[in-house]
Amino acid sequence: MENQNQNNQINEINKPKSKFWKFALGFFGIILGIFILYIGGSWLWQVYKWYQWKQTVIPPGFEEAMEKIQQEDYEQAMADTYGDKTPQETLKMYIDAVEKGDYELASKYFIGDKQEKELNSLQNSKRENIGNVLNLLKQSLKSQGSFSAEKDRYVISRPLLVDFKKYPNNIWKIIEI
Fold first, then answer.
1. Does residue 21 form part of some domain?
2. Who contacts 134 (Cβ-Cβ below 8 Å, separation ≥6)?
């Protein structure tokens, strides 16, 4: 009997501790649940706000139109064969065309939207100025350039800045001189 009384006393002492831990775990569980609901609700609110912004800023059909333009640009780039497999060779071809006075051919070594501007620039420049630029470009051929991290851009920075871009068909085009 005495043994049973001792067991009852031990159980009575352990009950409050057990109730405390259940209460503490329940309390922290509720706090954690509220925190998770708050974070989830905040995220959903941000997604909703972004969706609303997108609906007001980007007109219907815009994304499809952009995809169509990108596809057309890609097809034009694939069809463009003026240039060579290295930036230096493309620059050499450009120099050769300018020296021969074939400005139309020389302008085709530039990326698509810069060709007309380059043609006008060459046609409206003095022969003396073109000769000076050609001499600097020949020196640029001897200079070491650098590739971008993606290996799709190349820049020669001395004595003139010459920027190149690699087209999807592996042809290098001049962006600017």
1. no
2. 95, 98, 99
The alpha-carbon radius of gyration of the chain (Å, integer) is: 35
Alpha carbons 104 and 116: distance in angstroms, whole number: 9
Residue ranges in 58-157 assigned as alpha helix (H): 62-79, 87-99, 103-107, 115-123, 127-142
Paired with 155 in beta bridges are 146, 163
In a domain, 143, yes or no: yes
Range of the domain at 159: 83-176
> Which percentage of the chain shows pLDDT scores above 90?
74
131 to 104, 117, 128: CA distances (angstroms): 17, 19, 5
Dihedral angle over CA of 9, 11, 12, 16, nearest 10: 150
Q: How many domains, the chain?
A: 1
Residue 31 lies in a domain: no
- Cα angle at 17 between 16 and 22, to 5 degrees? 95
In a domain, 161, yes or no: yes
Q: How confident is the model at residue 118 (pLDDT cuts 50, 70, 90)?
A: very high
Cα separation, 59 vs 35, in Å, equals 37
Task: Give the pLDDT of residue 32.
Answer: 95
Predicted structure pTM score: 0.67
Q: Name residues whose C-beta falls within 8 Å of residue 175's C-beta, 6 or more positions apart in sequence.
A: 110, 111, 114, 163, 164, 165
